[in-house]
């Protein structure tokens, strides 16, 4: 069950992270007030969102880490997180930025990351 909670928290964390890192690009397009916000304002806005990312990321790593009783070693946690990040980003960019296209080389990169997960879990 700890593995399930770890992955669920990582997914939620990555949704917040993606919004913090890239959401301001979309908001600039949609809201005139946001377009006029100085860079420090955009950074603060992203930090507020990133706070919630950390509220999920840190517990996910604590729950999931083998030395804390979880099912994953450190490398497995990181690779899982990277694959989740990629999946969340592809969904976000496809939904929020319709002008961005997902090409064959992007799909191949996803396949290689899934292969990385397989290799990390191989005994």
From TrEMBL:
A Pfam family: DMT_6
Transmembrane region(s): 7-25, 37-56, 77-97, 103-121
Key words, A-Z: Membrane, Transmembrane, Transmembrane helix
Descriptive protein name: DMT family protein
């Amino acid at each position: 069950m700890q593995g399930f909670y770890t992955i669920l928290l990582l997914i939620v964390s990555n949704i917040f992270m993606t919004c913090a890192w890239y959401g301001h690009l979309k908001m600039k397009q949609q809201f005139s007030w946001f377009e006029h916000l100085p860079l420090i304002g955009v950074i603060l806005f992203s930090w507020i969102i990133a706070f919630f990312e950390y509220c999920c990321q840190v517990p996910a790593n604590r729950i999931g880490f083998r030395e804390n009783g979880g099912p994953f070693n450190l490398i497995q946690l990181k690779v899982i997180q990277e694959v989740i990040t990629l999946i969340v980003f592809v969904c976000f960019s496809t939904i929020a930025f319709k002008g961005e296209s997902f090409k064959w080389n992007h799909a191949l990169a996803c396949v290689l990351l899934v292969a990385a997960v397989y290799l990390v879990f191989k005994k």
